[in-house]
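Sample intake sheet
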Amino acid sequence: MMISAERNPVSRRAVLAALTVLSLVSCSTATPAQPPASTPVVSTPPKQPDFGRLERDFDARLGVYAVDTANGREVAFRADERFAYASTHKVFTAGAVLQRIPIGDLERTVKYSQNDLVANSPVSEKQVATGMTLRAAMDAAIRYSDNTADNLLFRELGGPNGLAAAVRATGDTTTHVDRIEPALNDTAPGDIRDTSTPRAMTATMRAFTLGNALPEDKRTILVDLMRANQTGGTVIRAGVPAGWQVGDKTGTGGYGTRNDIALVWPPQRAPILLAILSDKKAKDAKTDDKLIAQAAAAALAAFQ
């Protein structure tokens, strides 16, 4: 017998309601609700300090480049102009030697004579009779800016061409490496020998200390030497806030050249890389450590 739908309306509504519920449950299971998309974080560029005022105050030309490795924010002033790099390159000679040799070879002694000694060699001048290990030469070159020790590292690299090749291998096609100590400090306006830019110096320092130019164990050796530097107390180190750590390498040359390149660690943060290069118009001009310290303070304040 056929049952009429008109005679059982409640049952029909119940069936339809049940089917609707099943349909909703099925759709919910097949397509789970998606969480709302997160809003992308936008890194605001730091306000650029008035480095021009520092140039006027110190009657100098100033080049600054800093980058916060946590977010890529930059501070730049004459960042692509050339300056004599002076002894700041010693981070790179040490890094290039570390690339070439196993760590065990750092204990190998290298010999040199009295004739090899050059000016500003406070450590190596006392060790002519015994020679120096490569580790000691790196330590003297970076911590005390010992020029003869640096030349021993140049010798290990086969001269300036060896360092130039190592620098180019990091991607740096800007830095010119032409001479050894102390000739590389003999600079003049327009002479591109032994020069670089703040941006290029920072990038190459980053490759050797934080990047892939060296394995981690060798990077640690290099960074520890920079942290222990004894020549930088009045330059970048003098401009950092209390509680921040610094590893740096200074440089001094003709025409009032005064430089410092550094890794700076704010508390509980990734490091900031910083290069500050400067010079003056007169060949016999005096250097100004306060210029570097004040430029460092201004650059780092921009990231806070």
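Comment: The two ends are 86 Å apart (CA to CA). Residues 265 and 271 are 4 Å apart (CA to CA).
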